[in-house]
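thread: overnight batch results

M.L. [08:02]
morning all. the overnight job finished for the chain we discussed friday. pasting input first so we're all looking at the same thing
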Amino acid sequence: MSFSGETKLALIEKLPTKECCRRAMLSGMFRFSTFTSENICVFKSEIEEISLCYATLLHEITGIEVPVKKVRTVYQVTLMGREFADARDLLSPSDASIKDIFSCQKCDDFFFRGAFLASGFVNPPEKPRLELSTASADLACDAAATLTSHFRLPKLSVRRGNQIIYFRDAESVHYFLSYIGAKKEAFDVINAKMLREKNNEVNRKQNFDIANLSKTVYTAGIYVDAILALMESGDFERLPPELKVTAKNRVTYDTMTLQELADIENPPLSKSQISKRLQKIYKFYEETLA
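M.L. [08:03]
and the structure it wrote out:
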């Protein structure tokens, strides 16, 4: 099962006990269902337990009893005619905004839990993105404004005629999942973010080390080529004794850093001193052979 499906199953394991919160959750499920016409509403889920949860809440809160039917791979609860009208009047009055249906501080949490169960989707923790979908632009704007009062403004877009309310950063996805009660899944998202950041830090350090090593090898190669050319021409013997020692060390230990090369001198030199010696050798090469 997908991470999104596992999240939804976790959300129906423990339903609210307060009547107002149960009604708010059912309202979220109803409002974010699919409205196929003016008087037909279809709640759909690929997970049977979620559609059964909707049907059970619908019966317990409104008295409306509608069976769950399997249509291909989807489990549906369809409201039409008088049943639809009764559910709409009880759960989604035409003049009521989302906030109007809340009776306690927890009602909004459960409303968005219901909305997510009806139309939500969340990516696996490694690629954080969470969205809600509705055909109603008014509902999308109302939901976005309600969420903003708690956290931050979600992004809005349109896909195949539906309004998409979404978050695509780990902090927002983590917050929303925590907000609607999916605590473990929220932890998975933020934990994956921390792991990504740690891996990125390690990769940056490795890239930095590789770049430094490449630079060291490239620079050493220039000096080694110059020293070998001087040896081949016989001009190497014209160098002062101390430069000869440094030159031989550079050729012998061609992957050493300047600091390592300085440390093996007798007596040891500073990094700047060894650098100046190599520059003198290279300048002698340029004046003699280049």
